[in-house]
Amino acid sequence: MITRRAFIGSVACGLLAAPLAAEAQPRGQVARMGVLGNAPPPQWEAFRERLRQLGWVEGQNLIIESRWMQGRPDRLPELAAELVRLNPDVILALSSSQVEPLKKLTSTIPIVFASHGDPVGLGHVQSLARPGGNITGISHLMSDLNPKMLELLKGAVPKATLIGIMWNPTTPSHVPALKAIKEAAPQLQVQLYMVEARVAEDFEGAFAAMSQERVGAVLVVAAPVTFAQRTRLAELALRHRLPTVFLYKQNAEAGGLMSYGPDLIDSFLQSARYVDKILRGAKPADLPVEQATKFELVINLKTAKALGLTIPQSLLLRADEVIQ
User: Fold this and answer.
1) What CATH number is given to the structural domain containing 55?
2) Is the pLDDT of residue 296 over 50?
3) What is the rounded distance in angstroms from the CA atom of residue 103 to the CA atom of residue 83?
4) What is the per-residue pLDDT across 56-102, written as a single tens digit (0 to 9) for each?
5) Domain residue limits at 48
6) Which residues does 175 contact at the CB level (< 8 Å), separation at least 6?
7) What are the strands, taking DSSP E only, across the chain?
């Protein structure tokens, strides 16, 4: 295994690192946090541990109310409404998909997003520096990351001239992400074949359609369901012999060819600091949106060999991790 760390960009870290002059919850009062997501992610325990380190212990001074949609986006409005009725002190939304219904229901309960593809473009915050409302958190700027993923995929499969793009129209951040991908395609001399996949049941048909169109490789635009179903997606890509790039390294670890994106554990640890500060009295409007600063390129050589694909040495040298 080869490892190398890449740190890209620095945003409002200093502002958040400085302690705020705010009091904690009054002694004896128990804070209540809501959580809205697809399913408990692998980094969920790291988030809870960081909260404990910051002084928030479940069953003592913190109650966590979780609502998981389990791959059913149609349940989001109902689950969001349940959390808002509980009137928690803060709600953690795991992605932009969960922010959208919450924003429609409340302008007063603080909302922290652990991962958001385009919070300004979707109108969830006024600006990164000054969110201006009840919402803040960690941004991954998918409109920047997806063109880079397309470039890396083309580097791994130079002969690919038609690239399949699997996206989810129910994920708000996918619209600006697709726009950025389309703008990048001509420079890379590739054409795009778009396939929609809203739920896990759509994956089989999506890959079959891309295979029938003889795409040379596939870019999967990240959504909660593509993360939750990462093993199945890797199996489908291998069955159809389609080199596929994902946003998160967990997809590559599950058998996907490669990934390029933020470190999710780091993002969840960052979001725990937001939750802590809000529970101690800070207002979301005063907490700048922090952009992810830690990005990783992961290449799964085992999958490459199974696909009969030779990854250029120049690309392997750029990788932060190579899975043998």
Assistant:
1) 3.40.50.2300
2) yes
3) 12
4) 999 999 999 999 998 788 899 999 999 999 999 999 999 888 999 99
5) 8-141+263-293
6) none
7) 6-7, 31-37, 62-68, 90-93, 111-116, 135-139, 162-167, 191-196, 217-220, 244-246, 258-262, 290-291, 294-300, 321-323
